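Risk mitigation, structural track. In case the binding assays with iron/sulfur cluster fail to produce interpretable data, a predicted complex structure has been prepared as a fallback.
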Amino acid sequence: MSETAIRFREDLMTWAKGEIREYPWRAPDASLYEVFVAEFFLTQTPADNVADVYPEFLDEFDSLATIDESHEDELVAAIEPLGFHNMRAEALKRIATNHDELPTEPERLRSLPRVGPYVANATLCFALKRRIPIVDRNVVRVYERVFGDAFPQSDSAREAFAEEMLPATGEEARTYNLALLDFGALVCHKRSPDCPVCFASGYCEYAVGLAEDQ
Ligand code: SF4
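Fallback model:
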């Protein structure tokens, strides 16, 4: 692991102490199901929008069994404010029909309808404090900027890179992954990264390149 990687990990963990956002699904005692529902919705919907409907959704559908017993129209109506409601309701209904409990093996969880590697890994890391990497487009953007060509191109190599970046314990990995998501959303924005206030500006390849061009 490079000195830059070690430094970024340490700096991000320090940043996490004051900056991680609080949402109901991030509560330490949130269940596997509660975290899964949030991550399932968060793939295509901003967190603040999910937060608006999340409590009511859990009040109405507190388990896979409740979803299984419900009429699909009720499920569609509950998800409608988030968009993609028909597709999401159909997928949740299929999951609930075929599973009493959510799988806790990454491969089985990611094979469920409309559940890809990101949702599966985020759910297991955040709910069960597993030391599992998460790689979505925001994580890719941050790592590409900070590490430049040292961040690999293939999906499998990126997942291995992200796993190596994780701190030693599952609890720390959970904090690191949450911080990475929030850092990408709050500082290393897609269009205009806040390099002047960023802890990584002295060694981030993107920021150093910008400084050299000026
Ligand atoms: S210095 Fe800029 S580009 Fe690099 S990680 Fe920070 S915000 Fe992102």
